[in-house]
Amino acid sequence: MKENVIVNQSKTLLFLLVFIMFSFIVTGIAVDGASTAFKGFLELQFRPARLISDYISERGIGASLINAAAVGITALILISIAKVQLSGATFAAIFTMMGFALFGKTPVNILPIIFGVYLAGKLVGKTFSEYLIIALFGTALGPIVSLITVEMGLTGLSAVAVGTGVGIATGFMLPAIAVSVLHFHQGYSLYNIGLTCGFFALFAASFLRAGGYVFEGLMLWNTSNSAVLIFLVPVLSVILIVTGIFSAGKNSWKDLLAIQKHTGRLPSDFMDLESMGGSLINAGLLGLAGSAYILIIGGDFNGPTIGGLLTIMGFGAFGTHLRNSWPVVVGVIAASLIFGKSLTSPGVLLAAIFCTTLAPIAGAFGVIAGFIAGFIHLVLVHQTGSWQGGMNLYNNGFAGGLTATLIVSVIAWYRSRKSVFK
Amino acid sequence: MKRKDLILHLIGEISNFLLESDPRRLVISLHQEENGLHLCILDENTHTKEELSRIEQKLNSRKRPELAGYYGSMTGHDMLGASRLNLLGWQVKHCDVSSIGSGIKIDIWLGGDAFQNDQFTIPEKGDE
């Protein structure tokens, strides 16, 4: 791809992302008023953030949208500091971070993690740009910082200092784990940092439990659907589709079809492999499809579900598309029906959205493999949350990574059945 | 990562790509200097011009430090599925792909910040 095309793409993405963040702030103020929204936003910085803490249920729509915009702006500033051009991977990271800022991430609880990743890079002579993706996605462990700071009985400056220190130490560990666990599933689970953070959180939760701490379950889940929440993602999706059509012009349909042919295996930057326009249209279609699914089954539009939709939209530029996603989603739906779980229950609803982490399995090994992956994923994801004390926000990424590891291991073993030589 | 590991992974990925078309003969040549290395791989399978162009495009893709530093660790390591030349492309200094007789010749130059072109036989522009 030519350098000027890349620069223009990066500028368009920057404008689009800033517009989205600005829209979030304006919408937040319009819904709750500036005073309530900003007061709620500040209060969210020092609230428990473990799964499931729906910020909309906690402090309202306005505070949550401003928090999402603030986390998005933080990500944009870090990308700018790292001098990395915006592309599929960074687009996915920003959308994911903004989504999870509706239920767990805040600027205060993510910064220590990011600083820890930066320090790890310094230790092994890596630039911040080389660990940027790990730093951005690694903010899934923000709830560890919040847990230490506000849930464990510490007060004042000591609470902030210990929480920050633990957050930095956590971030410091992430690059080593992220690279190692990538080999477990060989890139067939898109949310690799979910597996990374889940792996780390298993140890963190075990140490806390060994020290006598008892994790109390959190279940803040907004059930009052408002028009703003219902239409937020569809409107955003239409904006992405229109931007994509204008950007790709007459090639938009061709690029979109070309994207559907990729397996989606990590790292598949659709903006590089095809085009920014096609990727944005793909992201928009995923957002519309996800919203339609929630509407059809009568699910709730709240922080976690909108966060999930924003995540799959982001990964619409980095591995997810309709063709490789549907078998996995059908697998989750089938498992929930067979095991008598309601499609609208929080765990199942989130699994149906986030199971698209396993889309590359369907993309590479076919519909049946994708279906099986989705089926196993639903069973596993109901257990993994309690294993890690809800401290890893990407719980579906954790379960998805384990599921992908299982499936990839079996496929690799099966392919070794034939003799090498006649 | 030790240099030996890096070389093993580079050879693994590029060989994985060429072995997908099951050549009867595959030759790998390595030239090392303190600040860089030159890897040359040849096979004897027939490749179309479009194929050569696609390979060259992937191997000379723009540098992506944010992807190379993380996903680059999969180079020559995770072999289930198709080979991925873009993982190599993010990391190399320069790459040439040419047709030789019935086969293909892929030259890859890789090095650190102190990489010196004159220690290697990188063709100048318009030198071919």
Question: Can you describe this structure in just a few lines?
Answer:
By secondary structure, chain A is mainly α. Chain A is built from 19 helices and no strands.
Q: How is the quaternary structure best described?
A: heterodimer
H/E series of chain A: HHHHHHHHHHHHHHHHHHH
SSE pattern of chain B, N- to C-terminal? HEEHHHEE
What percentage of residues of chain B falls in helices of 4 or more residues? 25-40%
CATH class assignment of chain B: Alpha Beta
State the low-pLDDT regions of chain B, or none: none
Can you offer a commentary on this structure?
The complex is a heterodimer of chains A (422) and B (128). By secondary structure, chain A is mainly alpha-helical. Chain A contains 19 helices and no strands. Chain A has two domains: 3-210, no CATH class; 227-415, no CATH class. Helices cover 73% and strands 0% of the residues of chain A. The longest helix of chain A has 30 residues, at 3-32. The N and C termini of chain A lie far apart (44 Å). Chain B has a single domain, classed as Heat Shock Protein 90. Helices cover 29% and strands 25% of the residues of chain B. Chain B has four helices and four strands. Chain B has helices at 3-19, 49-59, 65-68, 85-89; strands at residues 26-33, 36-43, 94-100, 103-111.
Question: Which terms summarize this structure?
Answer:
heterodimer, A: 422 residues, mainly alpha, 2 domains, globular, B: 128 residues, alpha+beta, Heat Shock Protein 90, four-stranded antiparallel β-sheet, 4 helices, 4 strands, 25% strand
